[in-house]
Amino acid sequence: MNIKQITKKVYMSMPEERRDRPIVGIINGMKGVVYFDAGSSQKHAQEIITNAEKLGLSTPSYLIISHSHTDHWFGLIEYQAPSISSRTCKKRTEELARNDWGKTAYEKQVQEGHGSSFLAEILDEEYGKDRSFIALRTPEISFEDQLEIDLGDVTIHCQKINTNHSDDAIVMHIPEEKVLFLGDCLYLRTKSQTDVKKLFEQINPFNAEIFIDSHCPKIMNREEVEAYCMDYVKSLEE
To answer: Which helix (H) or strand (E) holds 211?
Structure first.
């Protein structure tokens, strides 16, 4: 796993499909460092921290969690900095943290239809067969619609977004660098053309030239994001 610099102030870890590890965004400001997401496990977070240190990047001042799916926040326990999410995400991670993630207990949930067999395999890969030691931490700070963090030379703007991938999702905009971190908002679970068009209408106003999807190693531009959304609409027509 390596970390790639994409602008003067913005870095990103590379995603990994096999273990469903998403991108972690790193914004290196004059007054602090902000991470977008925390990694999918303690192991993933440790690797990010080690690789960031090799690049001379400071430890994060804040971590911002894109949404409550486990691959985006299970690594949070490895960091000391305060963490931030949407209000809905904070509540949902608190509920998930009370779950029993041990192998036997979670396999029972899968059998009963309350868990994911795919996630069970990922947990085996990340934590091993004995998962009794799993420790989780949830975001301490939450917001309803928007949040801004001033890092001196760059600004972090977080915006709640309506996407049916997860109803607690946010995107993160760095206007000075013209970068928009999308999280998983493009991974739609809808058969409604209107929903897809409304999603692009929310993304389009941001002053961005670089669009980063959490599970895609390829950086996209605005035209590619629009094409993705329109292709999805066309697939619903077929």
So the answer is: strand 210-213
CA distances from 205 to 79, 130, 159, 162, 215 (A): 33, 47, 12, 14, 23
Question: For residues 213 and 186, is the Cβ–Cβ distance under 8 A?
Answer: yes
Q: Is residue 143 a contact partner of residue 86, using CB atoms and an 8 Å limit?
A: yes
Report domain 3-101+136-237's class. Answer: alpha beta
| Residue 47 to residue 23: CA distance in whole angstroms | 12
**Does the structure show a pLDDT above 80 at 129?**
no
pLDDT of residue 173: 98
pLDDT tens for each residue of 62-102: 999 999 999 999 999 999 999 999 999 999 999 999 999 98
3-state class (DSSP) for residue 168 = coil
Q: Residues with Cβ < 8 Å from 230, sequence gap 6 or more? A: 200
Instruction: Give the CA count within 13 Å in the CB-facing half-sphere of 67.
Output: 23
Provide the strand spans (E) within 42-191. 62-64, 83-86, 141-143, 146-150, 155-160, 170-174, 179-183
Specify the pLDDT at position 128.
84
| Distance between CA atoms of residues 86 and 146, nearest Å | 9
Give the residue extent of every domain in the chain: 3-101+136-237
Share of the chain above pLDDT 90, in %: 79
Q: What angle do CA 37, 39, 43 make, to 5 degrees?
A: 160
DSSP 8-class letter at 78: G
CA–CA gap between residue 130 and residue 133 (Å, rounded)? 8
Indicate whether this model's pTM tops 0.85: yes
* Spatial distance between the Cα atoms of 60 and 26, rounded to a whole number of angstroms: 8
